[in-house]
Amino acid sequence: MLFPNSHENLVALFLCLNYSAMLFLIGIVGLIINRRNLLLMLLSLELTFLSSALNYLFVSSLINLLVGSIYAVLIIIMVVADTTIGLSLVVLAYRGSKIATVGSFITLRN
To answer: According to CATH, what is the number of the domain 8-109?
Structure first.
C-alpha cells in the first residue's frame, strides 16, 4: 500500500516533515550565522544531514519499505565520517594558530 487513504497518516507525515524542515532551516541558518566558528559550523552541517535522514525515516515508515531506513543509516554513517574528518581538521588548525576559526586554515597550506 504505497499511498494510504487515511488522513491521520498524512497529517502525521506532514507534521513530521515540517519538523524535519525546521531542523534543516536551523542548520542552514546556523551555517550562515556562524561563519567564523568551525565547531558551530560543523554542528550545523551535521544537523542538516540528520534532518534529511529523518525525512527518509518518516517517509519509509509511511510507505512500509525498508529502503528508506537503510538510506537513513547510510546517511548517518556518512555524517559520522564527515564529523571525524572535520574535527581532526579543527584540531589541526587549533594546534597551528591556537584559534579555531575559518581564517586559521590559511596557516595549514604552508
So the answer is: 1.10.287.3510
